[in-house]
Design a protein that fits this description.
Length: 490
C-alpha cells in the first residue's frame, strides 16, 4: 500500500509533530492548500480558500506551542461566521456577506491553535441530507465522484475524506454531521443538546449543535474538549464533566467500558423509509457481533419513535428556522425575498412557515418534546442504542437536490431526503448524543457506517465504547482509498 499523505494522520498526532519541531505549521498549512488546489476541482468541497490568512496565521506558530492543536489546518462549514471570510449558507441570497466577528465555536477553534484554510459547501441553508446547492454546484463523494457525500456538512466530509484537511467543522440539526460521516467513511459525533454554545447569535438550539468530522474517535473526543462548555449568555447548557475529567480520556485504552453493557438494537426507522438496504443491515449485524465479542449484550429494542405526524411536526419546528434564514438573507440584500432568490424547496418551506401560526409552531414543539421525553425514558432501559446510520446507500448526484425541475417537486425531495436518513433527526429531537462510525467499504465501492446513541449528556461513555470498537476494528487504514490512488475517486 502506498504511504498515506501526512494530512490523513490524526490531528492530535500532527499537533504533536509541530510542537516537537518535526514539521512547521507553515509547511503543514502549505500541504493543505496544495491538496485543496489539486483535489478540489474534482470534489468541489470548498466555497472559499483562505490561502493568505492561513499562511499568516501559521507563520506565527512555532515549536513548543502548548495549545492543543497549534498549527493544524481545519476547514469550516459555510454557515458559521468566521471574521473576514464569506458567509453564504449555500444560498445566492446571502450575496458576498463577510461577517466581522467569529461565532463562539470558531473563536474556540482559533484559541486551540487551528489554522483555518477554507470554508466548505452545504445544501442551501442546510436543509437536505445531500450537498447540491444551486450556488456553487454539487459536491462529489471522494469515494465515487458520481455519488453524494451526504449533507448537510457534505463539503466538510468530502474535504476530510479527500485528504485536504485532517478534520473539519460541521453542525447537525437532523443528522448533518452523522450522515456525511457515514457516506464518506469518517467519525461523526452529534454532541448532547447544550454541550456546545450556539452563541453569539442564539442562546441555545432545540435541534442543532456544532461538532467535527474526523478520522478517529480520539480526535473527535479531543475536539469536544475544545468546543464544549458554557459561554456567557447561553440560555441553557449541558452539565459539565466532573473536575479533572476530559472527553479525550474516554478514548484511552484504560477507559474501555466494562463488559456487560446492554445494547438495544433498533432497525425500525423513525421517519417513513423505503426499506433498509441489505448493506446497511449487514453493517449493523457486524457491529452487533463485534459488541458481543467485547462482552456486551445486544438485544432487539422496540422504540415507539415514529408517530404518523412526526415529519409534519419536525417541519413545523424546523421550517421557521429556515424561514428566519431566508429573512436574514433578504435583510442583507436590502429587499424582500423573491422565489428566484432561493431554491424551490427553500421557498416552499419558507411559504409553509408563513402559514403557521405561533400556536401551530408551539404545539408542534410541545408534541416533539413530549415524544422526546417518552423516547429518552425508553432508551434508559439499555446503556446504548445501535441503529443503521442510513437506510440506503449514498445517492447519485441529481437524485435529491431541492432545486425543483422535472421529477423534483420540492416536497418530494424533502421526503426522499428523510427516507434516505430516517434514523438521525429523531436523535436531535431527543437531544441525545449520537455517533456514526465507519464499518467498512462495501462492494459498491462506498463506505458504510452505523450509529450509536447514548444516554442524556452521555458523550464520555459513548466515546469510550466507540474507541473500544475502533481498537478492535482499526478502520482508519481502510478509509484512505480516495487519497491513495492517482486521483480522487479512483
Amino acid at each position: 500500500m502506498p504511504e498515506a499523505p501526512l494530512l490523513t494522520r490524526p490531528a492530535l498526532e500532527l499537533a504533536g509533530l509541530i510542537r516537537a519541531g518535526e514539521i512547521t505549521a507553515t509547511e503543514l498549512t502549505a500541504l493543505s492548500l496544495e491538496a485543496i488546489a489539486a483535489r478540489d476541482p474534482a470534489i468541489n468541497a470548498c466555497t472559499h480558500v483562505a490561502a493568505d490568512t492561513a499562511a499568516t496565521a501559521a507563520a506565527v506558530i512555532g515549536a513548543g506551542d502548548r495549545r492543543p492543536f497549534a498549527g493544524v489546518p481545519i476547514a469550516i462549514k459555510d454557515n458559521r461566521a468566521v471574521a473576514g471570510m464569506p458567509l453564504t449558507a449555500g444560498s445566492a441570497l446571502f450575496g458576498n456577506h463577510v461577517p466581522d466577528l467569529d461565532a463562539h465555536v470558531i473563536a474556540r477553534l482559533r484559541a486551540a491553535g487551528f489554522v483555518i484554510v477554507a470554508k466548505t459547501a452545504l445544501p442551501e441553508l442546510g436543509i437536505l441530507s445531500t450537498c447540491e446547492p444551486a450556488r456553487g454546484g454539487p459536491t462529489a463523494n471522494p469515494w465515487q465522484l458520481e455519488h453524494s457525500p451526504g449533507g448537510s456538512s457534505g463539503g466538510s466530509a468530502a474535504a476530510v475524506a479527500a485528504g485536504m484537511v485532517p478534520l473539519a467543522h460541521g453542525n447537525d440539526g437532523g443528522g448533518s454531521i452523522r450522515i456525511p460521516a457515514a457516506c464518506c467513511g469518517l467519525v461523526g459525533l452529534k454532541p448532547a443538546r447544550g454541550r456546545i454554545s450556539a452563541g453569539p447569535e442564539a442562546g441555545d438550539s432545540f435541534l442543532a449543535t456544532d461538532g467535527v468530522l474526523t478520522r478517529t474517535v480520539a480526535d473527535t473526543a479531543a475536539l469536544l474538549d475544545v468546543l464544549a462548555g458554557y459561554e456567557r449568555g447561553d440560555a441553557t447548557w449541558a452539565p459539565p464533566l466532573e473536575p479533572g475529567r476530559r472527553f479525550i480520556d474516554a478514548a484511552a485504552e484504560a477507559a474501555t467500558p466494562a463488559p456487560g453493557l446492554a445494547v438495544g438494537l433498533v432497525l425500525d426507522p423513525a421517519l417513513p423509509a423505503d426499506g433498509l438496504h441489505p448493506i446497511c443491515a449487514a453493517a449493523v449485524a457486524r457491529v452487533g457481533s463485534q459488541l458481543e465479542a467485547l462482552g456486551h449484550h445486544v438485544e432487539p429494542l422496540t422504540l415507539d419513535w415514529s408517530p404518523p405526524d412526526l415529519l409534519d411536526d419536525f417541519t413545523a419546528a424546523f421550517g421557521p428556522l429556515i424561514a428566519m434564514g431566508v429573512r436574514a438573507g433578504a435583510e442583507l440584500a436590502g429587499r424582500p425575498a423573491r422565489p428566484e432568490d432561493v431554491e424551490a424547496l427553500t421557498w416552499a418551506i419558507y411559504r409553509h412557515a408563513e402559514t403557521l401560526s405561533s400556536l401551530d409552531h408551539l404545539a408542534a414543539q410541545a408534541r416533539l418534546e413530549a415524544l422526546a421525553r417518552r423516547i429518552v425514558v425508553a432508551v434508559g432501559a439499555v446503556d446504548v442504542v445501535l441503529t443503521p446510520a442510513l437506510a440506503q446507500r449514498p445517492p447519485r448526484t441529481g437524485q435529491i437536490h431541492g432545486r425543483g425541475g422535472p421529477g423534483h417537486a420540492p416536497w418530494c425531495d424533502y421526503r426522499a431526503s428523510g427516507a434516505f436518513t430516517p434514523y438521525t433527526a429523531i436523535v436531535n429531537v431527543c437531544g441525545l448524543p449520537a455517533i456514526t462510525l465507519p464499518v467498512d467499504v462495501a462492494a459498491d465501492g462506498l463506505p458504510v457506517g452505523v450509529q450509536l446513541i447514548g444516554q442524556p449528556a452521555g458523550e464520555w461513555e459513548l466515546l469510550a465504547l466507540a474507541a473500544a470498537l475502533e481498537r478492535g476494528w482499526p478502520w482508519r487504514e481502510r478509509m484512505l482509498a480516495p487519497i491513495l490512488g492517482a486521483a480522487p475517486g479512483t
